[in-house]
Amino acid sequence: MSLFRHGFAVGGSSSVRQFSVVIGMAVLIAGCGDSSDPDSAPPLPDSAEIEVSITSEQETPMQSDIPSPPQQAMTEEQPKDRRKPATPPRADSPPELNDAELLELGIRTFRSSDVILRTDAVTFENEEELRRLPELTSELLGTMIERLETYAPSLPIQARLPVRSFIMDDLKLFVQADLAPLELREMLHGVYRDQTFWMREQATDYYRRHLFFHESIHCLLDIYGYGYPVWFHEGMAELYAVHRITPEGSLEFGIVPGSDQVDGGFGRIANIRREIEAGRFRTIEDVINMSSNEFYPHQESYAWAWAVCRFLADDQLTGVAFENLLASVNPPQFRQQLERNLSLNSPRLQADWAVFATTLEPDFEPDRMLIQWNDTSAMPLTGNVEMKILADRNWQPTGVALSPGQTCRVTATGQFQINDAPRPWISEPQGVSAEYVDGHPVGQLQAVVYNERDPGEKQDYGFLNVIPIGREGVITSETGGELFLRLNDRPSSWSNNAGEVTVRVRAGE
Ligand SMILES: [Zn+2]
């Protein structure tokens, strides 16, 4: 039996107890990894993710150098059990070698107040990066702790610190020094257990930091132990690990990934794009129902988990409730919060998700790329209606409802800015011929007819059947629904637009 193996069976368990035990063991020893995109990222030494876990309660006991998982099932009545260490340290454990002794073995130590890093991967090129990594991570963890303490002040979150970490070139060295279990030889990227994680040295400074942050966040969020399902654990770790170092040297994390992050090895957006092109679009429900054995070695599962967390954090319909999920401390509570407060089955949210997932690109602008919903009901179209459509955001409601089979004529006039670099670029409603998005000119007036009761197929939700209009066009809607309009542009390029067009919608041809 291999203690560390890829995947384990969690999904489909109808027993809360069984679910808790298996999840519990999984989060104690869970693997993580990268999303290196073979198309756009520099080659990384190990491009697959490893998920390390235990398959069943009946397996052979762990080897003596590895703490055992908790034997007791977590239930709602005993939530505090989750915060205990898996097992106390063995009385006969040899004391850990000190910094000087480890240095003689070729293992350097770098510290901050909350993070201890031991590594044999120091080179002339990366030494400064490794030296500052604990400090940067302290900054990240400090901010997250502040946030967590706001939600659940009674939790002993400070007890999660310090985080012990290992960046390894030569695993054998760490095994000999009693700092890592031999089973990690199967690890391709990173593995964490309680407050300790191990990771392979990475090919880029960006990705080393990213994976280091990712594993550190697991160590911190594991305070809730079984409280989080795997998509949330992995999605949140990825969400917060996306970062940049500003020219002034400060850390920004939890950001929308841009080209710097993609160049550094962040391949989740490319994963999603490839999945959708291959006909494997996933709904939010599909993603949150993913079991742990759907993760390693499937890079795309990590990508979907990141995308759903990013989306739920950004969407106007779910942003606040998503933050509040952090306060859940057990599976029923988490599930309840998810179902009660996030309305994942609402047609509007699903339409937003379809727009988000199918158009993801680096530097996307969440506030502007998602649908601009209106709370007032659309009115049936009888004569003429005139409205303004703004150039700087995606789909906008017109307040016009078409009945099934109804035809209308749409005409548009006006000039607007479609880009601001290298200088303001002016377009009219037919769009510009020099740049296309999804086969249509940038700046082109486009329409969809959205029927909340008949939103279309899984991947559609009414917003992917785009009707090109330009200066003038005729629409006949079979299903009927509200008319939405936009001036075509990329998800990363709305904020450099300005101005509006005047649109007239007339019933009949
Ligand atoms: Zn992970």
- Characterize the quaternary organization of these chains: single chain
DSSP strand content: 15-25%
Number of helical elements: 14
Residue share in helix: 25-40%
The overall pLDDT average reads 80
Strand order of the largest sheet: 2-7-8-6-5-4
Poorly predicted spans:
1-30, 33-91
Could you give the count of β-strands? 23
Q: Structural class of the secondary elements?
A: alpha+beta
Task: Give a quick account of the main beta sheet: strands, pairing sense, barrel closure.
Answer: 6 strands, mixed
Q: How many structurally independent domains?
A: 2
Shape: elongated
List the ions, cofactors and other small molecules found in this model.
zinc ion
What are the SSEs and their pairings?
Blueprint: E1 5-6, H1 16-28, E2 30-32, E3 52-53, H2 99-105, E4 108-111, E5 115-119, H3 127-151, E6 163-168, H4 171-176, E7 190-193, E8 196-200, H5 205-221, H6 230-241, E9 243-245, E10 251-253, H7 259-264, H8 268-277, H9 284-288, H10 299-314, H11 319-324, H12 331-342, H13 347-359, H14 366-369, E11 379-380, E12 384-390, E13 396-402, E14 407-413, E15 416-419, E16 425-427, E17 436-437, E18 440-441, E19 445-450, E20 467-468, E21 472-476, E22 481-487, E23 498-507
Parallel strand pairs: 5-6, 6-8, 11-13
Antiparallel strand pairs: 1-3, 2-7, 4-5, 7-8, 9-10, 12-23, 13-22, 14-21, 14-23, 15-16, 15-23, 17-18, 19-20, 19-22
The structure holds zinc ion (ZN).
Residues 32, 214, 218, 234, 237 line the site of zinc ion.
